[in-house]
User: What shape does this take?
Amino acid sequence: MAVHRREGLFLAIAVGVVAVTFGVLAEAAGLSLPQVIVMSTLVFTGASQFAAVSVIDSGGSSGAAVGSAMLLAARNALYGPVVARLFRGAVGTRALAVHMTIDETTAMASVQDDDATAADAFWWTGIWLWSLWNIGSIAGALLGALIGEPEAWGLDVAFPAAFLSLLVPHLREAPGRVAAVLGAALAIVMVPLSPAGVPLLVAAIAVGPALWWRVRGPAS
Assistant: This one.
């Protein structure tokens, strides 16, 4: 097996373990097995799925759950220009590539030395990830009914941990720190004043000042 395919498989195995946690939390939040399958098949982006389930489990509305998920998924649009050159074939192929364009597939493609290898790394990583994410989600949903409350196992911290993993790399630059501090402040203020899920949406306002800082503020 080519090195990039093997690396994609190892990455997918690690993500598949996280998917088990998602399945457990989704089952605890009241989602049925078919709902977990549909979400993992069609949404296929972990942070967004964790966000939606977290809002649902906290008693938030479906609008807040979808809004939170879409807010986190919006970052995937930035990956399109990175991998677009690799897929100039049929519309169906490009549509499938859009569905597979997530953090891991983009990262694997972007570190390759040529476009052919990059495309191969993208597809194989995507195939491994999609397969193991769905298998892990199903396993977690089935396991959830057996282990009881996920809080007893510490699984309730999975979404905050995933969110922080997305945030930490941006703290190296001043705009990222501005967004983190302001977003946290907004969320803290909104928690006692709004339904579950809304604080996360309001915190997104912090992106505006962060962008202003990047364009007009002091050098990071």
